[in-house]
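Data availability (excerpt). The following record was deposited with the supplementary files.
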Amino acid sequence: MSERLRPGRLPPTVLAVVGVLALAGVIAVGVTHLGFLRSGHRAPFVAWTLIAWTVFAGAVLALRFVPAKWMTWLVVGGGLVVGLAAIAGPPNTSTDSARYAWDGIVQHAGISPYAHTPQSTALSGLRPDWLFPDKIDGTCDPLQPRYRGLGDGAQGHCTAINRPDVTTIYPPMAQLWFALVRAFVPATAQYMPFQVAGLIVSLGVTLGLVAVLRRLGRPTWWAALWAWSPLVASEAVTNSHVDLLGAALATAGAVLVAFGRPIWGGIALGAATATKLIPAIVYPPLLGRWRNWWAIPVGIAVFGLLYVPYVLTTGLDVLGYLPGYLSEEGYEDGSRFALVSLLFKGDAATIVVGLLVLLAAFVAWRLSDPSRPWSGEVLMIGVTFLAVSPRYPWYALLLIPFVVLSGRWEWSAIGLAIALRGVWPSVDAYRWWLAAAVLVIVVVTIVRTRRSDWVRWGRLLSFRRLDHVR
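Predicted structure:
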């Protein structure tokens, strides 16, 4: 693609470089200057999120017109620059990686992370000062919102771990990840190890997406929707959420199954589900071929095997705080479903959400091309998120790789809506953001879909013979 332009106009390569550098600057400023997200100081985070996404959109738009010989280098190099900016400071919207570090420290002491709560005096000898600092004048108030009172009767301590009075919620693959990352650093090392690990995995996903895009014959600039994403920078790197590992394994599993490797794909998908349970929703669009169904028993077997070492040491306590978390977050009574709860309340909302997810699974299964199931994955994950309406932006990490592979950029609107919900926890505002995302998705889908596609989809969904459709 030629970069010869009219006098006075900058070439797209320069615009893309300037755009990604500006994005890195925005992210670095936010990480280093906004402090830790707290009640009453959320407006700057909302502004920062909107600015970052606007710069991101402009940078990716410029990247589309960059010559092919530079495009991949810019995607990967830009991802590295944005990722380095994201580790310019400690986590700024979540303390989840404090729990990750603690679970890793406990495992290296030869103790099951499911056996004791962080406030248990049985583990008091393992507590590093950075996770359990002393109180100031007898209170943790000066250290809030990042720290809170420990509550175990040990005077003079606070903790960075949320919910210190319950056992861990994270499944076994996540626990293995925590132990692996912490294996190379002392207990005194703080948040940086998980941030660096997040950057490495994120770059690995970028390279994997580039490789798949090339195999599919599509331009590699699409991978920038992951590599340069403000949501990836914030949630995969700065806040180091383990959902990154789940998304990476789920994407690898889906690619392997689609490319005719259901056994290896099942292994990756089982590990993804044992990292964070939500990646299980990527299965339905993959099952259009009978041979792909092997991924299900293999995935289930891997999921079970990963639990074995922890069950042997801790028994049924390996469920940890999961049941309590589901109740706390409103999954059981339906109170957390932002859109569905407008029409249905209580148990009825939960039933409706379940039916919507099942319907999405059926549609994704029927309409997906098993060799290229990416659009089906986007539909399955996107509809699930719209129905469940997660409160935390890191859940959207699972959606982005499939947006890249499918080219359905309009579904990124869900990621932005969830990102805004993460920094401004207003249910009414979240409903408007989700409604706006739905509008974008519907309008773009209608504009880009041909009549013949609608007819073909109708025949597939009704199990009618698929004749040639003009």
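Summary of structural features: The beta strands are 148-149, 158-159.
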